[in-house]
């Protein structure tokens, strides 16, 4: 009697291919080409109690993968990526990215100049580096949305910026779940959670 077919695990395929990718262009092409849907990501699919959910799927020496789960009208704050390449793949729903350029005004205070604004749907991919500017993401729709975020190398903190006065603060990465297990997130950490994506 033949063995039952093994289920395709596309997220594992992506991890294996990214582990040997030699350039940012190869990384982008891998993320664009491998189909991943919410069915496969169900173990990591958790929403935050007062902000969007940040769910750690994988972390290694060269990169990490985080699933962000967005309720309607949830947004990150404008932020950088501390030198990491950020590649985002919209998994379900619709997300809007607003990009900014920073113009120095004073110590620890900047002017955020909005540049491009783009909406992404299922399967679409975008990337950003600090050299390209800052961004914020949000779900402007009435439906839930999910996005996979890949950071090269892993990101443990970022600078978050106030859109009104340009003030900045360093925030730490905090997760709603790690490897499929929900974490206990304190009220203070929820503020940090809203700032990084």
Describe the structure.
Helices cover 16% and strands 40% of the residues. It is an alpha+beta fold and 197 residues long. The strands form 3 sheets. A 7-stranded mixed beta sheet has the order 6-3-8-2-1-11-12, covered by helices on one side. It has a 3-stranded antiparallel beta sheet with strand order 5-4-7, with no helix packed on it. The chain is globular and about 50 Å long. The model is unreliable at 1-7 and 186-195 (pLDDT under 50).
SSE order and pairing:
Blueprint: H1 10-20, H2 24-33, H3 38-41, E1 53-59, E2 64-70, E3 85-92, E4 94-106, E5 109-121, E6 125-128, E7 134-138, E8 145-152, E9 157-161, E10 168-172, E11 177-178, E12 181-182, H4 187-193
Parallel strand pairs: 1-11
Antiparallel strand pairs: 1-2, 2-8, 3-6, 3-8, 4-5, 4-7, 9-10, 11-12
Compose a concise summary of this entry.
The protein is an alpha+beta fold.
The radius of gyration computed from the alpha-carbon positions, rounded to a whole number of angstroms, is 17 Å
Q: Into which percentage range does the β-strand content fall?
A: 35-45%
Mean pLDDT: 89
Supply the CATH class.
Mainly Beta
- Which residue ranges are poorly predicted, with pLDDT under 50 across at least 5 consecutive positions? 1-7, 186-195
Query: How much helix, percentage-wise, in residues?
Result: 10-25%
Count of helical regions: 4
